[in-house]
Amino acid sequence: MKRICFLLRPIRKPFIPSLLSLLTLCVLLLLSVKYSYILESVPPPAASDDLQTYHKYNINCLAIYDMDPVEVGKSLIIRRKQVVEDKDESLVNLTSNCPLFIKSRGYDDVCVSDEERDFPLAYSLVVHKSAWMIERLIKALYSPSNIYCIHYDHKSSALFISAVEGLARCLPNVFIASKRESVFYASISRLKADLNCLSDLLEPEVQWKYVINLCGQDFPLRSNIELMSELKELNGANMLETSRPSEQKKQRFTFHHELKDASFEYQKLPVKTKNKKTPPPHGIEMFSGNAYFVLSRDFVEHIDSSAVVKDFLAWSEDTYSPDEHFWATLVRLPGVPGEVPRSQPDITDLMSKTRLVKWQYLEEKIYPPCSGGHVRSVCIFGAAELRWLLNYGHWFANKFDPKVDPILIQCLEEKLKEKQKSFQSVASHACHKG
Quick check: keyword Zinc in the entry (predicted)? Predict the structure, then answer.
């Protein structure tokens, strides 16, 4: 390695850019060798016999946030050689002893300010795998004043179901949806899963102000108190994407779709037929968006009792990905709480703070390159994007996968915990635990 770098010295001035590139490569290779040796030489810590949680990595998250090249390089080597898969079984075992689970994960030490207690939030989580990721998502958002509904897919593994039911058993403000669906990609079942949770969330005594829906590969970019503060500023308005549909997207609800067997991971998929649908009921004008939202309680109570909404839901049964036009259209209906007038310009995914998704075809045009990986043109974020994610302005992001980059998730947890404490100390002198 030293010989290669030495041979670079005689290169003349016209080749300085190439020289700098090669010197940078030398540094990265040396770091790779150094940290490969460290990681291979140090044995992993012994697992405790009586307590097993998810795996934590030896990384400096402050240095990752500051884009320190040495620490970012270390994260890349961990990702390549040291990723440990967190098994659903270990969460099943831990939640079999609720006091131990609550104490070991710090739920008994969560501080709630007066401001948070007066502005509770609700969550609908539609999930199907990776139980530890679900627990970590809840923990990152957790406040005893909030309420969390989990809808698990009927097709999920028995171990996963047992793990999330353990979460609901141990945490008093977490519950399982009373009605559950077998969820198929782009079908009405995905929308119904959220609707089941929304209906259940209206039942408890918790008078939450806003509800947010999430999936298992989402993660927050704001602490609970930061999020509460920003939601207060909405003053009853809803936050979601709602745009006029392109000609291509109109095909999704202009033609009848049938759910048919698929030969890949989704098992079943809505397939377009040649049969045209009737226009939407009640003269509804169609808008498109995505499946994710931040909705006021008044809006949810309205749609839960509205005959127009029930007719629109029935009409949407045979459309493709109805959750991507259902909410975007309903929020434009005249007279709904938090209405977005039909005359108002499009609200795109970049304008809505609800969800940050980095599309591969927009990288290096709108977004910096993805430092993790891609699935179906969507970036699975990596550790090098930590600072960008926290400062871009959105409240949540998708996608995260501990098997692709566990360091980013660990560092987000650390930064959000730090920010929660910092904002609470400014907001209120009162702290209520448990």
Answer: no
